[in-house]
Specification:
single chain; 178 residues; alpha+beta; Glutaredoxin; two-stranded antiparallel sheet; 8 strands
């Protein structure tokens, strides 16, 4: 990824630097829990809510709210869950068991990916982008637990970041969908 830096000198009075992010979330393709590919470019024109998930967490019931949000706003919102086992070992299962749990317990129909790391040495490239202002052009974020959320606009740019405690039905999220 390249960052383009353009400096302009204005009649010797000041110098301005414009940093343009070289990409959007639409550049990413990830493996789905079903073994197919999730191409974020196919979500152009819709908002995207990206959530790192876990099946054995105190926040796991948020799956219910995520599914409800997905159903209510399907015409303008895609939710993508990224199962992750980095916080308290709360996602120990296989992709098959995760998929079955989400479907049977919460009726999840929104896309889920294979298990990923969202921090550390093996961080998935989409999470490197999401968490680095240098890459995404908007904000730096640190994933500290399960069910952190990134909301992106229809053009693949980050609108907001929400920590675990912000529920899918909170006004903090809903205000962006009105």
């Amino acid at each position: 990824m390249k960052t383009i830096i353009l400096s302009l000198a204005v009649i010797g009075l000041a110098s301005f630097t414009f940093i343009k992010p070289s990409n959007t979330v639409h550049q990413f393709k990830v493996k789905s829990i079903n073994g197919t590919e999730i191409d974020f470019a196919s979500f152009k024109g819709k908002k995207i809510l990206i959530v790192n998930t876990a099946s054995e967490c105190g926040y796991t019931p948020q799956y219910e709210g995520l599914q409800k949000l997905y159903e209510q706003h399907k015409d303008k919102l895609v939710i993508v869950g990224f199962p992750c086992n980095q916080f308290g070992g709360q996602e120990p299962g296989t992709e098959t068991s995760i998929k079955e749990f989400c479907k049977s317990r919460y009726g999840v129909t929104f896309p889920l990916t294979t298990k990923v790391d969202v921090k550390g040495e093996n961080t998935a490239s989409i999470y490197k982008w999401l968490c680095s202002k240098e890459q995404n052009g908007v904000l730096d974020a640190e994933i500290k637990w399960n069910f952190n959320k990134f909301l992106l606009d229809e053009n693949g740019k980050i609108l907001a970041y929400f920590p675990s405690k912000v529920t899918p039905d909170s006004e903090e999220i809903l205000k962006y969908l009105k």
